[in-house]
Give the backbone structure.
Amino acid sequence: MITSNEVLVPLMLTLKVAGWATVLATLAGILLAYLIARVKFMGRELLDAAMTLPMVMPPTVLGYYLLVLVGRRGPIGHWLEAQFGISLVFTWQGAVIAAAVVAFPLVYKGARAAFEGVEHQYEQAARVLGKSEWEVFVRVTLPLAWRGILAGAMLAFARAMGEFGATLMVAGSLPGKTQTLSIAVYEAVQAGKDDVANFLVIVTSVVCITILVASGRMLRPRLVA
Amino acid sequence: MRVEVQIRKTLRSSGREFRLDVDFTCQDDVSVVFGASGSGKSLTLRAIAGLERPDAGRVAVDGAVLFDSKRGIDVPARLRSVGYVFQDYALFPHLTVEENIAFPVSHWWRRRPGKDMVRKVWDVLEIFEIGSLAQSYPWQISGGQRQRVGLARALIRKPAILLLDEPFAALDPLLRIRMRQELLNTQWLFKVPMLVITHDPQDVAALAENLVVLHKGRVERTVDLKGPPYRDEKGIPVRGIIRQLLMETSVETNGTQAPLSLGAVR
């Protein structure tokens, strides 16, 4: 018998973690992609490579890096604990950080391509029409790049939903607290609960396919007369 | 009205070099800078608007210094009070005609004009007879209509000067004739001095009171076209003589090598 605790709780937790992770990754992705796409500086391509790294590195390795950084004895973790009494390890917020880092390159890559696809001429037209750089960004660059950014954000959400390795390293597998869908699947299989595992797998697949179809639509060029 | 332009700039791209060194003054309602592609006229126009930074020189419109390398003045494009009509008009594709025209006079948090600006936007829409297109998007309207939107958007802030980059190149030949006349009417209506760059002799014949011929980055000659023999006693341009003049100057322009693309340099 499948209880709601076994499905609903990890599902809601996963949506919460993936949602917050997507918000964080999208904000950071837009900011950094704009910087890389529009400002020329030394080491630009190196920074680009560094920000793409989470896409190719094993999530467990990333998780380990994160532990070193935000763990009790890590520089960020130590500072957070001393200043605010916050500890990220083994919390759902820690899972958000892990998922955000893993999902970040997807938004970043999408946003960079989208920004680079915006013709300079529109931005220049806005400048000649008396607009400040901030206004050019908000009223011209961002709206014109929006579809690409949104598609990247949706892929990031799908990726964050499926996050396993880094989340497990940072947040562990505490049922009801940090046990997300993908971790719950692993635990269910380990415990021999095949019916629970089947159900969780189907739920995860349906959500991910929905997102991929939607983001594919978002990327298809609009009909232009 | 007096536009003083002295610009020096060197562009380099994959081993090739283009040197712009122009110096001219315009005092008329409509000045035309004529030259083949690669003569540096686009670069000149962009430098006046503040979209390109010269290596050295001075740009002044009606006594207001916009750029002066000696005094370290470089007014940002947004503060230059210059209207600019791009070759393909650069209408914002995500905004309607009304929102495009309202863009310069509306706040950043809303697309539509504020209450105080609605009147102004509709005045301009009516002057250019595009009120019925207000809710259309740029890709839904014709080339001539797009040009009117581009002009309306550039003029709504009443700029000190209007710069036009090949304004008729994107139009059908028949439509060009009509839109040249419209442009002259617009000039008369808004009393705004215009600086047009073109490689089309027809534009020179129809519009120019003052002609600047550019060749390989230098001013080859400047000609006052306001009086005889270039205008008849009614003030109408004598096309044959103007064409003759351009033939003389453009004989060698045909051999110019392909232009350095501005995009490649940036």
Q: What stands out?
A: The longest helix of chain A spans residues 4-38.
